[in-house]
Design brief:
mainly alpha; 0% strand
Length: 181
């Protein structure tokens, strides 16, 4: 999934947390939760910066998938989120607690969406196996992986034919409808 779907997924996950638990927060804090949760939906892809830097600046030719970096480890985000939520509990600060929970649901929305076809190492560091609902082969693209031309050809040529693309359209439309309602 690409940026719009992950941001929409993070937003929807945050909206669900706020709707279900109705935390006793002021409107400014709730807006911050939405911002944090929406950005957390894309947060595991922070490794893309390193992924592209090594290929473009350092001219490496690694075949590594960016989803193999630690930022794509659900257990890492679970631990980090629980630490933040626990800190909020210890400090008796409900806002900090909800920041932890919002980061958790935002990042895990990312992993669930990436698990449609690409796979996530859900049990890393205990297992390197990537789990997905439906595995798809890598796109057959002539441009070097990590280049802008590779990304452009993938997004315009291959991605629209994938199940993940349909899921992304649905998630984005639902998020827009939830935002305007």
């Amino acid at each position: 999934m690409v940026l719009p779907g992950h941001l929409a997924g993070g937003y929807l996950a945050t909206k669900a947390i706020v709707a279900i638990f109705q935390p006793a927060l002021n409107s400014s804090q709730v807006i911050w939760l939405y911002l944090i949760g929406t950005l957390a939906g894309e947060l595991p892809d922070i490794d893309i910066a390193w992924f592209y830097l090594t290929r473009i600046v350092f001219k490496t030719n690694s075949k590594e998938n960016h989803r193999e970096h630690a930022t794509h480890a659900p257990l890492l985000w679970l631990a980090l989120s629980l630490i933040i939520a626990a800190a909020g509990y210890i400090l008796k600060d409900i806002f900090v607690q909800y920041i932890g929970w919002t980061i958790l649901v935002g990042t895990w929305s990312h992993f669930i969406l990436d698990s449609i076809e690409y796979g996530i190492r859900w049990l890393w560091p205990f297992s390197d196996k990537r789990l997905c609902f439906r595995e798809v082969p890598d796109a057959d693209i002539d441009a070097p992986k990590g280049s802008l031309s590779y990304y452009w050809e993938f997004v315009t040529g291959h991605y629209p034919r994938r199940l993940t693309f349909c899921a992304e359209i649905i998630v984005v439309v639902v998020a827009i409808l939830a935002l305007v309602s």
